[in-house]
Amino acid sequence: MKKIQMVDLKGQYNDIKTIVNDSIQEVLENSAFINGPKVHEFQKELENYLGVKHVIPCANGTDALQIAMMGLGLKPGDEVITADFTFAATVEVIALLQLTPVLVDVNADDFNINIEAIKKAITPKTKAIVPVHLFGQCANMDAVMEIANEHNLFVIEDNAQAIGANYTNKNGETVKAGTIGHVGATSFFPSKNLGCYGDGGAIFTNNDDLAHTIRGIVNHGMYKRYHHDVVGVNSRLDSIQAAVLNAKLPNLDKYNEARQNAASKYDEAFSGNEVVVTPYRNEQDHVFHQYTLKITNGKRDALVKHLNDNSIPCGVYYPIPLHKQKAYTDERYVESEFKVTNQLVEEVISLPMHTELDDEQIAHITSTIINFLNE
Ligand SMILES: *Cc1c(COP(=O)(O)O)cnc(C)c1O
């Protein structure tokens, strides 16, 4: 059996080696390392793929979120509602910009931001909502957009984990995750569904004015060379990363299908097990950035240890709710309002998930888990 890895980047690379190498070689030969033609090419290809008017590449997913918020003109003291159960980057940039993060509970089934909790958290200071499409499945964007319209709020989608996922809205139109809100942000960190070989990110929007503003912000607030109209940052996708992404984007749907197939095989192996809750599918696509189980008999930590002892990698995303992280505690938070996240951190475990998983590996992983839980 091939060695089981949480993410198998080498295996995936071997499959596309010539294309990736040629694409990188081109950058080396023309030596346009910053803002070269590869970056522009990737921007256009991604705009086409997503069906969005503007893609603005940047240095990483965290920057993408920060720049999106800067572009919307959010001001210190503005409240931004986001999910308590996500990677810290989402809340970090809110705090960095001196906006006020307002963390809210998530759904016990799909782990995404809870709509009733959003409604309850809205105050006259609320300016934006940041739904996170966690683990590869869209939050309830119809409901989020409805609340946003009603209260005049911006919606910034954190699409770092769901690139390529389709969202079918209540009118029956299918669009890509990250293109529904006023602005979307994604990451091309190597292990993401569309990953480069270093850091990378992008911002998406259909709004021409916002796209223009953001294009200046990523480049030191310049709209005309050496004229700095707004405070900006330096956040660029470098040409070598764009070359990798250009080579990989045509495979994204295939990669997401490989993840979905692996997920179905995991599901099948666990079906009927009373302790293991397999990932819930809401009405939307799930592109399985992570395959995350709930272990309901209190043995999650013991299972993590057992898998480690048996050389099967796994992860606990996330072990501590954001509202309990030292940097993000706030005396306004009431524990009883975080019932779901407080429980999820005790129950979740993510299994190896990538495009190269084979049947033998899945059978070994699932039988090891089932045997342990049946002991
Ligand atoms: C990965 C990730 C980010 C940050 O992306 P980086 O490219 O690592 O900065 C933000 N939000 C979520 C939900 C993520 O998973």
UniProtKB/TrEMBL annotation:
<protein>
    <submittedName>
        <fullName>DegT/DnrJ/EryC1/StrS family aminotransferase</fullName>
    </submittedName>
</protein>
<dbReference type="Pfam" id="PF01041">
    <property type="entry name" value="DegT_DnrJ_EryC1"/>
</dbReference>
<dbReference type="InterPro" id="IPR015421">
    <property type="entry name" value="PyrdxlP-dep_Trfase_major"/>
</dbReference>
<keyword id="KW-0663">Pyridoxal phosphate</keyword>
<dbReference type="GO" id="GO:0000271">
    <property type="term" value="P:polysaccharide biosynthetic process"/>
</dbReference>
<keyword id="KW-0808">Transferase</keyword>
<dbReference type="GO" id="GO:0030170">
    <property type="term" value="F:pyridoxal phosphate binding"/>
</dbReference>
<comment type="similarity">
    <text>Belongs to the DegT/DnrJ/EryC1 family.</text>
</comment>
<dbReference type="InterPro" id="IPR015422">
    <property type="entry name" value="PyrdxlP-dep_Trfase_small"/>
</dbReference>
<feature type="modified residue" description="N6-(pyridoxal phosphate)lysine">
    <location>
        <position position="192"/>
    </location>
</feature>
<keyword id="KW-0032">Aminotransferase</keyword>
<dbReference type="InterPro" id="IPR015424">
    <property type="entry name" value="PyrdxlP-dep_Trfase"/>
</dbReference>
<dbReference type="InterPro" id="IPR000653">
    <property type="entry name" value="DegT/StrS_aminotransferase"/>
</dbReference>
<dbReference type="GO" id="GO:0008483">
    <property type="term" value="F:transaminase activity"/>
</dbReference>
<feature type="active site" description="Proton acceptor">
    <location>
        <position position="192"/>
    </location>
</feature>
